[in-house]
Amino acid sequence: AQSVTQPDIHITVSEGASLELRCNYSYGATPYLFWYVQSPGQGLQLLLKYFSGDTLVQGIKGFEAEFKRSQSSFNLRKPSVHWSDAAEYFCAVGGYGNKLVFGAGTILRVKS
Amino acid sequence: DTEVTQTPKHLVMGMTNKKSLKCEQHMGHRAMYWYKQKAKKPPELMFVYSYEKLSINESVPSRFSPECPNSSLLNLHLHALQPEDSALYLCASTQVQGQGVEKLFFGSGTQLSVL
After folding, report:
1. What confidence score (pLDDT) does residue A41 get?
2. What are B's interface residues with A at a Cβ cutoff of 8 A?
3. Which of A98, A105, A112, A111 lies closest to A38 in space, CA to CA?
């Protein structure tokens, strides 16, 4: 069965600092990997996705993520965080049967 | 049109009420989903429809009844809910390619409160 682990429940960074959110997955084949962002009471917005090819993927809002098969990881990064990036971030893995499974989420707080 | 529209945005209902949540998309997507998200938790898959047929039911209680009347619409009928069913209900859709999950478009959700 597919599963996702996001080890950090909360992360606080200063505005302008770099950011890395961790994600580890478990899946028996080549996974489809996603990062979503959610503001309170809102739906989910896709930041980026990995299906195959280049292991460094670029997304919206200046985010990028790197797929590392050997570490079963898909960490999200941003070189300089803005106050508007404060939200909850979900890593997800998709596979057979159109099933998408989410990690527990990481709440990002940005301090000025 | 690249949106998934969910109505209503907010719903308050009693435990004896019958209500329905509605989801609509006009992107030609043939897979549609219902997710349930409790506060401070990740979304949990409830149902998946593929080509208007129910393909995944994650052992959801029968008080939740999904319906896909056509390729653009997805309903979730609610009956005799419990207070613990209060949550944000998210609809999503995607193209169906191969056997994997492609990019999902999510609606903004219906915030349901059961009194």
Report:
1. 78
2. 4, 6, 31, 33, 40-45, 48, 50, 55-56, 88, 90, 92, 94, 96, 99-109, 111
3. A105
